[in-house]
Amino acid sequence: MGEKEKNLSKEKKEKRDSLKVSRRSFLKGMGTTAIAASMTTLPTPALPEAEAALPPGLKEATVQLNVNDRVYRVKVKSHWTLLDVLRRELGLTGTKKACDRGNCGACTVLIDGRAVYACSLLAIQVQGRKILTVEGLRNGDQLHPIQKAFSVQGAYQCGFCTSGQMMAAKALLDKNPKPIEKEVRLALAGNVCRCSAYPKIIEAVLSAGEGR
Hints:
By secondary structure, the protein is α+β, with helices and mostly antiparallel strands. It has helices at 3-19, 23-41, 47-52, 82-89, 145-153, 162-175, 181-187, 198-210; strands spanning 60-67, 70-77, 108-111, 114-117, 130-132.
């Protein structure tokens, strides 16, 4: 093969090599191009547009909450829980915020006499209903029989779950003044004590029932 033919063959080979693109390089290039295109053609929406994209519904309202026989007018956001409003807006911090997922019972309050988790209810849901927190148990300087029983029996260690335990106990004793141990255990099954003071808690509730 002559020199001229060799050079011509070499040029053809280089031309073919320049057109070869690996699959990885091709996909990488396509991805980069797509990202660049989206960045240039889809700018971040302005704040009003972002808000407009939210589901329609109540954003804010003023509600009347009957807590411990006192009526409060409170401006709340639609997503605020009763627990947050009690603690943050009304200063009733006896209702504890622990798991905030409806699992531990530390935030138990009474709604129309029924024990519920305050973290699982929106504040706008309980307007006009009767709410009782642990602060409402005491009558002035006089402790409620349940509070006395918990103190006498030493039914607490760290005390973080105590208010929720007391409220669950009150819901039980209001309906069943003299429960048996099995009934107490069932009524307080949704209230977790991480210190495992359950035996003393059971004794306190039974004692409070006997003293009524």
